Amino acid sequence: MTASPTSSSASPVTQALILAGGQATRLRPYTDTRPKAMVEVAGRPIIDYQLEWLTGHGVEQVVVSCGYKAEVLREYLEARGTGPEITLLVEDEPLGRGGALRFASTGLRDQEAPYFALNGDVLTWFPLDEMTAHHRDRGGMATLALSQFRTTWGIVDVDDRDRIEGFTQSPLLPVWINAGVYLFEPGITPLLPTKGDHESSTFPELAKEGRLTAYRIDGFWRGVDTAKDVKEAGEQITAMREGS
């Protein structure tokens, strides 16, 4: 595998993208008046958690790509008194996630430096410096953070004589899913589609070439895609606060 130009660098990654453009119909009524990134979980908008996490790991500039209810997000971000420099870019038409990534990358201050990218509906806390070191050690063009899959269904434990031994509600399964957090070398930008999904175009090509690597998250991760997710994520975060 050929190492990327910055793979040996010890410098931190200081820029990031957040995709916040979707209409999030499955999150209604929360998203009737606001974009998904502004939906509150445990009393705070999702994007607040993301910006705080990125800033805590040395990110100095964040480009937010948005579309639906962009004015609500703009007003909120402009009122924030702390955190990284924020560049807001508004999609004139839906571009798909891959197209949105490529569009958002035009707002990065340093076009020759690596950058993080996040889906706007992800809540997670893990050490980005460890992900960066892992990425550089593997020498890929892109690294995907992976989360262990937790099923929403209960599991029935059955022995070899078909006797039920017990039940386990929503266990972690021995498979990994795309966690919606990426670390990209700048060379990936022209490989992203101008419109469409990078997971069905760019990523499969990079995987075939051996230039796509994985970082397994050891920490909290939660996607927020439905009203049920909002409730459950809020309960998890509240429990973590009370336990700390």
Report on the structure:
With 244 residues, this protein is α/β, with parallel strands linked by helices. 27% of the residues lie in helices and 30% in strands. The chain has six helices and 13 strands. The protein has helices at 46-56, 70-79, 96-105, 128-138, 202-208, 227-243, and strands at 15-20, 40-41, 44-45, 61-66, 85-90, 115-119, 122-125, 142-150, 154-158, 164-169, 172-184, 212-216, 220-223. Strand 9 (154-158) and strand 10 form a beta hairpin. The chain is globular, with a radius of gyration of 19 Å. The protein starts with 14 loop residues before the first strand and ends with a helix.
Layout: helices, strands, pairs:
Layout: E1 15-20, E2 40-41, E3 44-45, H1 46-56, E4 61-66, H2 70-79, E5 85-90, H3 96-105, E6 115-119, E7 122-125, H4 128-138, E8 142-150, E9 154-158, E10 164-169, E11 172-184, H5 202-208, E12 212-216, E13 220-223, H6 227-243
Parallel strand pairs: 1-4, 1-6, 4-5, 8-12
Antiparallel strand pairs: 2-3, 6-11, 7-13, 8-11, 9-10
Structural class: alpha/beta
First-residue to last-residue Cα separation:
42 Å
Poorly predicted residue ranges? 1-8
List the secondary-structure elements in sequence, H or E. Answer: EEEHEHEHEEHEEEEHEEH
Give the biggest sheet. 7 strands, mixed
Number of DSSP strand runs = 13
Number of helices: 6
Q: Indicate the radius of gyration in whole angstroms.
A: 19 Å
Strand content: 25-35%
Shape: globular
Spatial order of the strands in the main sheet? 5-4-1-6-11-8-12
